[in-house]
Amino acid sequence: YDLVEQSLEPLMSAREMNLLHRDIKPGNIMMTWLPSDRFQVKLLDFGLAKFSQQPSTQTLDQNGSYLGSIDYIAPEQIEVRPLDQRPALYSLGCVFYFALTQRAPFSGKSVAETMNNHMSHKFIPLAELRPDLPKPIVDWVTKLISRQPNARPADAKEAYRLFQEAKKDKIAQPKEKAPTAITVATVTPTRETQKWE
Question: What are 30's strand-pairing partners?
Fold first, then answer.
């Protein structure tokens, strides 16, 4: 929950400055441990970021290849369509999926397969990999990685509001016992400053 909320905070600030990050991935999210034994999330690498009051397209290199991480890129970035903050939420949703499962949702055996998975919205439902998670939280992450931008929250502020609702709703949900055959991947952070790779 802390990871989600702290990752959305810089995107809310970026939205106020009309700043699009365009390359959100686990490697660009750093966790720093504080003296109080809490961690602080920092969003890094604004190398592909762009100030734009109007939606702008994804940057390509001189050969026409995409700049950014293909495992976390939104379909509309692949289609070189005008971008607002919803692609960043899609990428962040992929990061949260990875944090919960240790696998990127649309990753394939090749770049072409990964792109096709994004475009055809082909991925293993989060509930199948993590049946122990509350349904409202699963639904929230799944909403972030919706194929169509209009099906996602409009911006980070709305995503934050919907997350708070999902947290409240999960309290009312009966807890289901996870099957014993399921092994849940976990990450145990150290107290040192680190990136999620």
Answer: 42, 195
